[in-house]
Amino acid sequence: MWTVPRLLAAAGALLIVIPAAAQEPGYAPPQPLPFRHDQHAASPCALCHPGAGARMGIAPAAECMRCHRVTATDRPSIRKLAEFARTGRPVPWEPVYFLPDFARFSHRRHRKTACSRCHGPVSRRAALGRDVQLTMAFCRDCHIETNAKSYCGACHPVK
Predict the structure, then answer these.
(1) Residue 9: what pLDDT?
(2) What is the pTM for the complete model shown?
(3) Which residue ranges in the chain fall short of pLDDT 50?
(4) What is the 3-state secondary structure (H, E, C) of the chain?
């Protein structure tokens, strides 16, 4: 029988298990449009991911249509992309990587680091999924290896 304490315990367990599962390598949320990184590998990452700041940007659909006005226009996914571009609505891509609230990361500060260091061999992927589990140990090991700042406050904001 489900009592209030048992329900609360079950809900608490789900709050721990679901985010943890989303952090595992192999996590690949369904996306609103197929996007093959391997077919776009000749383009620099920054073309589709402009504005390396605290967060990495994703180019608007209109940028994609610069090529797709004439490339693969018969595909339903490109027609859907064209509709996003026509209306100016952003494509609702689902994030693949997450950071907990107690950590901060700036793509700008890491701009000299190869994207594949944290994101794996994205340029060889037909579908994007998480290749790396971004744990504190993963980041710390890289910081030690590259002589980057490794004191707690570098990644964990002091409140």
Answers:
(1) 52
(2) 0.72
(3) 4, 7-8, 11, 13-22
(4) CCCHHHHHHHHHHHHHHHHHHHCCCCCCCCCCCCCCHHHHCCCCHHHHCCCCCCCCCCCCHHHHHHHHCCCCCCCHHHHHHHHHHHHCCCCCCCCCCCCCCCCCCCCCCCCCCCHHHHHCCHHHCCCCCCCCCCCHHHHHHHHHHCCCCCCHHHCCCCC
